[in-house]
TrEMBL record:
Keywords: Oxidoreductase. Belongs to the short-chain dehydrogenases/reductases (SDR) family. GO terms for molecular function: oxidoreductase activity. InterPro entries: KR_dom (IPR057326), NAD(P)-bd_dom_sf (IPR036291), SDR_fam (IPR002347). One of its GO terms (cellular component) is membrane. Residues 6-177 form the Ketoreductase domain. This is SDR family oxidoreductase. It comes from Amycolatopsis acidiphila.
């Protein structure tokens, strides 16, 4: 798909992977609708890219259809939707409050499903359209201390895969980008910094490049970094071996 001239909505554009994706899409000639809550950061990004800003809290899932209307109204069409916004939570599951659970589920799973539902009719009338989901390796392997986050990212993966089958033969293609550890504010925001020595965090721009490949080249599934495919493969073929290795070397925080 040609990104020059395409209208691209990026959720969570105010920070990290979303901001890097917005800049990469701008460099590729796309027209941007920048979403987030942080108005100052979004205004700065809009200044750099000429994009339009739409603010809204994705925890308020009932408001997502109105948010979609606003996004669509900015340029009268949408060709690319990047469902990137997300929030983490780390710690023992028993310490999560019902409110914590609701926020993680709503922002990471219900909101992107709702936004996709609301924008799909507009995407379907375009000659070519893309929906890209930023999920997580946590959703493919499970991680101790991130049970609800892992569950919603796995849910988003399942939604994307099903939608890809359902929309086969239409102009709307679905891509999933599965990052490992990325150097963003994600860890500080969730309240538990990333302290392991490996794997080393990758720059957000690398994930952004994968999002652009998903849109341009219709790539269904990409891991960043690419070697992350390996543990997922081992888990699929030899789950007992995987669990033994994960218990020893990782998968636990
Ligand atoms: N960093 C990693 O290691 C990593 C690994 C795997 C997957 N991911 C996924 O990558 C995506 C981007 O994360 P990031 O690393 O770039 O983190 P980040 O720097 O913390 O950015 C998160 C973005 O999501 C937006 N957001 C969070 N809660 C929101 C809410 N309630 N309503 C609206 N927007 C909200 C934030 O916007 P405001 O600040 O303006 O509210 C921000 O733009 C997430 O889906 C995350 O799960 C990250």
């Amino acid at each position: 798909m040609e990104l020059r001239g395409a209208v691209a909505v990026v959720t969570g554009a105010s920070s990290g992977i979303g901001a890097a994706t917005a800049l990469a899409l701008h460099d590729a000639g796309a027209t941007l609708v920048l979403h987030g809550r942080d108005t100052a950061r979004l205004a700065e990004l809009a200044e750099r890219t000429g994009g339009a800003v739409v603010t809204g809290d994705l925890a308020d899932v009932a408001a997502v259809p109105a948010l979609a209307e606003e996004m669509l109204a900015r340029f009268g069409r949408v060709d690319v939707l990047v469902n990137n916004a997300g929030v983490g939570w780390a710690g023992p599951f028993g310490e999560m409050t019902a409110q914590d659970v609701r926020r993680v589920v709503d922002v990471n799973l219900t909101a992107p499903i709702e936004l996709t539902r609301a924008l799909l009719p507009a995407l379907r009338v375009r000659p070519a359209a893309r929906v890209v989901f930023v999920t997580s390796i946590a959703g493919r392997t499970g991680v101790a201390g991130e049970s609800v986050y892992s569950a919603v990212k796995a849910g988003l993966d399942g939604f994307a895969e099903s939608l890809r089958f359902e929309l086969a033969g239409t102009a709307v293609r679905i891509g999933v980008v599965v990052p490992g550890v990325v150097d963003t504010e994600f860890f500080a925001r969730r309240g538990r910094p990333y302290e392991r020595s490996s794997p080393r965090p990758v720059p957000a721009a690398r994930v952004a490049a994968a999002v652009l490949r998903a849109a341009r080249e219709d790539r269904a599934d990409q891991y960043v970094p690419r070697w992350l495919r390996l543990p997922v493969l081992v888990r699929g073929v030899l789950p007992g071996v995987y669990r033994g290795l994960a218990a020893r070397f990782g998968g636990s925080g």
